[in-house]
Structure formats: structure tokens, C-alpha cells
Design goal:
By secondary structure, the chain is mainly beta. The protein contains one helix and 13 strands, in the order αβββββββββββββ. The radius of gyration is 33 Å and the shape is globular.
């Protein structure tokens, strides 16, 4: 009987090992293989990218269009070469344009009426794009985007004014175009029509 004791001890040890493995399998223990766990990425829609900044010879000097505001910031105003339109970039808020006469917006196919600040329908007198908003026709109180006292300096054809989170340019073929650099949203317009997207300077 004494000679069987080692065999019984070995058998008992094997039974304990099998039981331990079975318990581990049921407990859902994860074996770490040192492989990186997959990460879950939040799905986000990238804003439409604006074209790269133009070369220095196409950049307008923002200082030439700056006008100090009561809050200590500077807004940036310009007049189109035809002097028919006036525009402004309000830092980190919006960029927009209106007729230099200040009444109505003589753009082909522009809406006849839009909601004003109090929700009442009224004929628009401006077009604008906010920092994080869609471009739109709007109703502005005077002076709107006009520099007072003015007039604002002319932004020449083929130049782009990039400042305070926005960019605007004027082209003979397409008219005036402005966009938010935060979203890429923008507009292009002339008396002949409009599109709610930014038009870059030709390469």
C-alpha cells in the first residue's frame, strides 16, 4: 500500500490542475497576447477644405482694410472695384456683402423675402456666412456691412483678403466670394446670380 502513495499524489495533483483549468475557462479570463486592442473612433464629418492659401502676390494686406471697433477689435471692410458692393469681415463672427446703396440686394434669382431678426418676412439686403453657419441672404439694419465713415478701400480683382477666420476675393468672371475658414462654407455672387459656395482664385 505504501508503494502506491506517490501515484495517488500525482493523480490528485493532475485532477487539481484539470479542475483549475476548467474553472479558468468558465470564468472568461482574457489572455493578453500583447496585441493592441482595436480603438473605437467617433465618426465625424470633415469640413470641406478650402484651397491652400495663395501666394503672397495674391494676398491683400489686411491692415489696409482694418477699422477699429468700439469693443477694441478691428473689423475689415472693402469695396468692390465697380463700387457697386460693400463687404465686411467681422472677426470670428461673419463675412458678408450688400449693395453700396444699402437698399435691397440686386442679385438675379435672390429670394424675394427672408426672415429678419424678429422673424418677420422682409426683402433681403445682404448675403453672409457665419463662422459655423450656412451661407444665407439676410436683412441687416443700417449701416450693415458699410464702413462709417467710408468709403472702404477697394479690394482689387485677383486679390484675396484672409483675416480673422474668413477669406474673400473679387473676380471679374464670377464676382465676390467669401467663406468661413472654420467650415469651408461660403458664397459667390454678382448681379447676374449667386451660388452658395466659395470660388477660389484661378490657379
Amino acid at each position: 500500500m505504501a508503494g502506491r502513495t506517490p501515484h495517488r499524489a500525482l493523480a490528485s495533483a493532475l485532477l487539481l490542475l484539470v479542475a483549475a483549468v476548467a474553472v479558468a475557462g468558465c470564468s472568461g479570463t482574457i489572455v493578453n497576447t500583447d496585441e493592441a486592442r482595436p480603438t473605437t473612433q467617433t465618426s465625424t464629418t470633415a469640413p470641406p477644405p478650402l484651397p491652400n492659401r495663395p501666394t503672397n502676390d495674391a494676398l491683400a494686406n489686411a491692415f489696409d482694410y482694418a477699422s477699429p471697433q468700439p469693443n477694441g477689435d478691428s473689423a475689415y471692410y472693402f469695396t468692390s472695384p465697380s463700387k457697386r458692393w460693400v463687404c465686411a469681415i467681422i472677426p470670428r463672427a461673419e463675412a458678408g456683402c450688400q449693395a453700396s446703396t444699402g437698399s435691397g440686394i440686386p442679385v438675379k434669382d435672390a429670394p424675394d423675402a427672408v426672415a429678419n431678426a424678429d422673424g418677420t418676412e422682409e426683402a433681403p439686403n445682404a448675403i453672409r456666412v457665419g463662422r459655423a453657419a450656412e451661407p444665407e441672404f439676410a436683412v441687416l439694419d443700417s449701416p450693415g456691412y458699410s464702413l462709417v465713415p467710408g468709403p472702404a478701400a477697394i479690394l482689387p480683382f485677383g486679390k484675396v483678403l484672409i483675416v480673422a477666420g474668413f477669406r474673400c476675393n473679387v473676380q471679374e468672371a464670377t464676382g465676390i466670394s467669401c467663406a468661413s475658414e472654420f467650415t469651408g462654407n461660403g458664397f459667390t455672387f454678382s448681379a447676374d446670380g449667386y451660388t452658395m459656395q466659395y470660388t477660389d482664385l484661378p490657379a
